[in-house]
Every structure is written in C-alpha cells, then in structure tokens.
Design brief:
The chain is an alpha/beta fold and 506 residues long. 30% of the residues lie in helices and 22% in strands. The longest helix is centred in the middle third of the chain and has 20 residues.
Length: 506
Amino acid sequence: MDEFAAALGRAWTDDEPAEFLTALTGLPDRMGGSPGEREAAGIVADAFRDAGLADVETRPFDAAAWKRGETTLAIEEAGRSPPAIALPYSPAGTVTGPVVDVGYGTPDEIAAADVDGAVVVASTTTPAGSRFLHRMEKYGTAVEAGAAGFLFANHVRGQLPPTGSLRFGEEAPVPAAGVSYETGERLRALADSDRSVSSGDERPHVGHRGGAAVGDGTGAGTGTEAGTGTERAGSDGDDAPTRVTLDVDATTTPGESQNVLGRLGPESDRAVLAVAHYDAHDVAEGALDNGCGIATLVTAARVLAAADAELDREVRFAAVGCEEVGLLGAEALADRLDLEGVAAVCNVDGAGRFRNLVAMTHTSEATADVAREVATTTCHPVDVVSEPHPFSDQWPFVRRGVPALQLHSRADDPAAATSEGADGGVGGGRGWGHTEADTLDKVDTRNVREHGMLTAVAIRELAAGERSFPRVETEALRTAFVENDYEPGMRAAGMWPEAWDTTDGE
C-alpha cells in the first residue's frame, strides 16, 4: 500500500497529463483509420511505456475508413448556403426536398411529422426526463419513415456544426450533415408547418431570442413559430414550402486502424481489462472527447505501475481506435481475446472532463460495489448509474457477458455548463464535443489528474483477489434495455443483437 499511496501523492503534481494532451491534440486529426490516428497510436504507445507498462505493442485491425470531402447546403428560395459538415458514413450524394422539423427527433415526433421525401432537421439534445436519444436512432428512425436527407442541428449557440457517426462501421443509406444552432433555427422557421411537429412544443430551439424568454406555446398549431410572430412555410398565405439541397462528397473505403496494448501485474486466470479510445473526429482536436479519457487512463497506468507488485490480478490496458465510427477497436479486441480470461472491463470514456466522476455499471451489481468502495475509500463523490447503453467501448464486452464499469463525468451544474457549451456530462447534449470547439483550452488538467487517481483506485479494486464478478446474463441485459426503452432506437440504428430475437423473452 505504501508504494501505491506514494504514487497517488506524486500524481497531484504530475505534468505528464498536460504534456500528453498537448502532443495528442497537436496532430492534424485523429479520425479513425487515418494517418493521424496512426500517429496518435504511436504517442499513446510511448506514453504507455513511459508509464511503466510491460509488453506494449500495437495491433492493427480492419476498418471501414470514411473520408469527408466538401459539403454544401443550399436554401433555395433564400439564396443562402450556410455552413454544414457531413456526418461520418454519410454516403456521397445530392438530395433536394422540403424542410421538415422533427424537434428532438424522438420516435413520436418523427411519426407525427410527414418526412417522406423531406430533408429533416433534428436537435442534438434529448428531451428533459427522457432516456438518452442517440443521433443514430434519430437518423435511422427518420430514414425508415422515408426521409431523403438528415440535418443534425446543434442545441448550443456559437456557429458550431456537430459531427458524429450515422452507423457502426458501414456506410449509411442517405446523405446527412451537421448544422449549427443558428442554421437550425433558420431552417425551422422555414420548415413546412403542415408536415412538421407542432411549433408550439417546448423544444430546445424555442428558448431565448434577443435575451427574451419565449416558447409559451402562443404559436401552437398556427404555423407561427412560438413567440416570434414569424409564419413558417406552408401556413395559410404562404407559397410552396422552402426547399433545400444537401450535397455531400465523401468516400468509404477498406482501411486499417490499430489498438495499443500493455499490461501490469502477475499473470492470472482472469485479468481486468482497462480501455479508453484515443481516436477523435476530424473536425477538432478531440481534447475532451476522448483526449481527457485516454490521458486519465495513462495517469492511472502510471500510478498502478509504481505499485505493480501489489496487484492481485493481471491488468491489461488497451487504447482502442475507431470508437467514434462504431466501437471498431473494441469489437476487434473482444473478438481476439479469450473473454473467459477477462474478469471485468473498465472503460474510461468521459472521465477527466468535469469535476464529478460518474460510474456506469451496465447492470452489474459487482462493479457497482467497486464504484461505491472507491467513493468510500477516497471520500470523493461518485455517481453510480446502473442503466446500460450500447454507445461506448464496454458494449462489445457487456454484450458477451463481461461485467463493466464505465467512468464518465459530469459538471457541478450540468444545465449551466451546457448553456455555455460544455456538455455538462451524462444525459445532456454534447456541447463542445463533436465540434471544432473541442480544443485543448477547454481541459482542466486537475480533473484529469484526480480522475486518473480515482481510476487507479477503481482498477486496483477490480483487480483485488477477493472480489468476484458474476457474468452479465443475456436475458437480464436484454430486459434492462427493453425496460429502459432502448429497443426501438437500437433497432433503428441497426444495433439490436440478432441473437436477442431468439431468446425466450421475445
């Protein structure tokens, strides 16, 4: 314990996290399957070695490499072409159609609108009190309903078009792009009210204009945007609805990515696997997503390496590639490992960004116990969330029955953080994440250091010899997804495991 305590103490003043993040975010990009991602893997491998990990190696895997070209969005009647960026795995193509506003892009909103042949506009955020709605669900649901094109409008002001993958590792069926909050507002004002969801609904784009609160529903059902007095296209007295043309140039080709592996501790029948993704979207530096996460894992590795002899189990470390385009590195790792030899997975995705640590346990009570023990031992608040989700690197393992602990973070005041561009943490929108504003200046290295220390405590606890981790039962996991209303969205996104349809619970 003395060596471990000393290593934790040294972490308080460690400059390595800042230096590592500076090098990682200094690359042109870290897009999955790109030369930049390959260079980032080299930086991570060097950091693993410097931290003291043994047997560090880089292992390649096949990946569908998506590369963006030019994207244009033309609002025909207005003669405007606001900025837009293609969403990864969007196909190349040109679509023209009326604008239809589907609000948040919930299944109910899309069902209530007439999206057939239209270019739909959906918000990046999720309704208050709702389960999390991923962009892949919104896109997939809209496409199933007949949408010809998809526009993903940021809920955060600042001329920040968002990005994010449409599919896991394969090209999507119709063109899609991200647009800024400001462009989204203009498109909603021009949307065909006869085909859109009610403009009086309280949605994120009906908030504050010119400092005045609006959105009291005074325009509900009238074709007038609430609180603005502006008639939307398609209401009485208007000409034909405004049409837009979305033109995307992009390619999806066979490519290659890589995972970076290392290890600590004694060889054991069942090891703990600690993972974090190091790739990022090409539009930004990826400092928050997931530069902070991989820096947190490297910090934890340095702490644990100083007390290597005190570990009861082997700990395997994996910096995985291509998370942002479909968890491809984690899938490749899960395919290659003998998962009977993996006791539990610790996925560091979202830790290090904000002050408060969040532990997602994905239905495992055993990993929840670990999270609570970390909170007790360190007198540090840890928010334990049991609900599972399939949108990060624990999913390929949890799906196969391996218990998981995902370390994320949230701000002290998520609502205030979101309004200023930070994503605020679990359950809100991404804010600066997945935009060009995800840059090094947003990082508070105190969070990275402290969460690195907490992650080291968590991994050490996972590796404790007296702990056992029952496997996640398939039917219990499936039931949790159904009860939390994830099934429709996972099916729309093409993520629902086919094997689950043959279970007794179907």
